[in-house]
Amino acid sequence: MLHTLMKSPFISNISLLMTMLKKSDDFLALQDGVLIALIDNVFLKNIIMSSATLYLIKEDVYARGVQKNISNKFILISYTHFILLTLKHKQQMTW
Fold first, then answer.
1. Number of folded domains that form the chain
2. In which domain, by residue range, is 66 found?
C-alpha cells in the first residue's frame, strides 16, 4: 500500500497511520506533509522506526526551505517517481 501524507503531521492522525504501516508499504510525504521529516520533531522517531520505505517530494521540501533540516532516513524523489509509486501500489491511502 502507498500511504501519502499531504497535510502537516501536526493536524493529521499520525498514530493511526503508524499502526497501519507494514513492511511492504511505501510512505510518501508531500505538500505540508514533508514536515514529518524535520529533525527533532515529535513524529520523526516513530515514522523512522516503521518498516515502510520513506519518501519525500523534493520540490515540496525545497519550496518550504527545510532541505537542510530533514532526516536522512527519507528518500527525496520527484513527482515523476511519485507516479511510479502510484503504479506500483494498487491500494493507496491519503492522510
1. 1
2. 2-94
CB–CB of 54/75 below 8 Å? yes
The CATH number assigned to the domain holding 38 equals: 3.40.1260.10
Q: Give residue-wise pLDDT tens across range 39-59.
A: 989 999 999 999 899 999 999
What is the full DSSP assignment across 9-26? GGGS-HHHHHHH--TT-E
Radius of gyration, alpha carbons of the chain: 12
3-state SS class at 32: helix
> How confident is residue 91, by pLDDT bands cut at 50, 70 and 90?
very high
pLDDT in tens, 20-33: 999 999 999 999 99
